Automatic annotation (TrEMBL):
<comment type="function">
    <text>Catalyzes the condensation of (S)-aspartate-beta-semialdehyde [(S)-ASA] and pyruvate to 4-hydroxy-tetrahydrodipicolinate (HTPA).</text>
</comment>
<dbReference type="InterPro" id="IPR020624">
    <property type="entry name" value="Schiff_base-form_aldolases_CS"/>
</dbReference>
<dbReference type="GO" id="GO:0008840">
    <property type="term" value="F:4-hydroxy-tetrahydrodipicolinate synthase activity"/>
</dbReference>
<feature type="binding site">
    <location>
        <position position="206"/>
    </location>
    <ligand>
        <name>pyruvate</name>
    </ligand>
</feature>
<keyword id="KW-0704">Schiff base</keyword>
<feature type="active site" description="Schiff-base intermediate with substrate">
    <location>
        <position position="166"/>
    </location>
</feature>
<dbReference type="Pfam" id="PF00701">
    <property type="entry name" value="DHDPS"/>
</dbReference>
<keyword id="KW-0457">Lysine biosynthesis</keyword>
<dbReference type="InterPro" id="IPR013785">
    <property type="entry name" value="Aldolase_TIM"/>
</dbReference>
<feature type="active site" description="Proton donor/acceptor">
    <location>
        <position position="138"/>
    </location>
</feature>
<comment type="similarity">
    <text>Belongs to the DapA family.</text>
</comment>
<dbReference type="GO" id="GO:0009089">
    <property type="term" value="P:lysine biosynthetic process via diaminopimelate"/>
</dbReference>
<keyword id="KW-0028">Amino-acid biosynthesis</keyword>
<feature type="binding site">
    <location>
        <position position="50"/>
    </location>
    <ligand>
        <name>pyruvate</name>
    </ligand>
</feature>
<feature type="site" description="Part of a proton relay during catalysis">
    <location>
        <position position="49"/>
    </location>
</feature>
<comment type="pathway">
    <text>Amino-acid biosynthesis; L-lysine biosynthesis via DAP pathway; (S)-tetrahydrodipicolinate from L-aspartate: step 3/4.</text>
</comment>
<feature type="site" description="Part of a proton relay during catalysis">
    <location>
        <position position="112"/>
    </location>
</feature>
Amino acid sequence: MSTHRPFGRALCAMVTPFTGSGALDLDAAGKLAARLVGEGCDGLVLNGTTGESPTTTDAEKEALVRAVRAAVGPGPSLVAGVGTADTRHTAELARRAEAAGADGLLVVTPYYSRPPQDAVAAHFLAVADASGLPVMVYDIPGRTGTRIEPDTMRRLAEHPRITAVKDCANDLLASARLIAETPLAYYSGCEELNLPLYAVGGAGYVSTVANVAPGPLRAVLDAFDAGDTALAAARHARTLPLAERMMAAGLPGTVTVKALLGGPVRAPLLPAGREAADGLRALLGALLQAESVV
């Protein structure tokens, strides 16, 4: 079983701020990144789904990495999302992310074309060979239509630069076995599994909810590491109402985060309505209030 955490424990899948006219807002991105690091995030994942990567250009992706690196300095881990449905394009984005100052790459399974497992493996291996950065494989079959099967994951684990997994496969049994059998660092990509995955040897999490509640999420891992599993469970339970409303109530996480932080989304997404935003604010307020009295 691996206990290494190549990108830290507490990672935020950061939203990408835009101006009122829809342009990339690098100043706001830098300020958000600095705040998240200041409030307990070990690292940031940029240009992921939460960062609206399907709607940002290659140049915008590169500019965002450069701006955030300048804002947070060399300490925090920056993992750049580079996954596309095209292996050649993904490899090019990997090289550009490396040049821009990223510490690692988040690479999602090629989507829509639904490649068989040998092609899935070939894709990840080609991208890992395209730069010198470590790779976090993103397994999210609910979005991509293709799961990275356990045997494929074992094969990928043999590559020296494939070091981590963002796990949204919703198969705790398979994940626990792979944690035990491979050197891969498993990061929960589903807030409800942050503590369960960590308890069986996971490395931490990559969280959308951390955009608005970085402290309460990190506190769960802190309690567990301190040996107080009852407190860890209680803290985890307190995060669940907000996580459920943000991630499983019909609106994308990007939309719910920006309902709380402010700022526009890019089409095809639409902003949250007032009722949804008010409900989110109430749940966030309740979570922060509960944490303040512990």
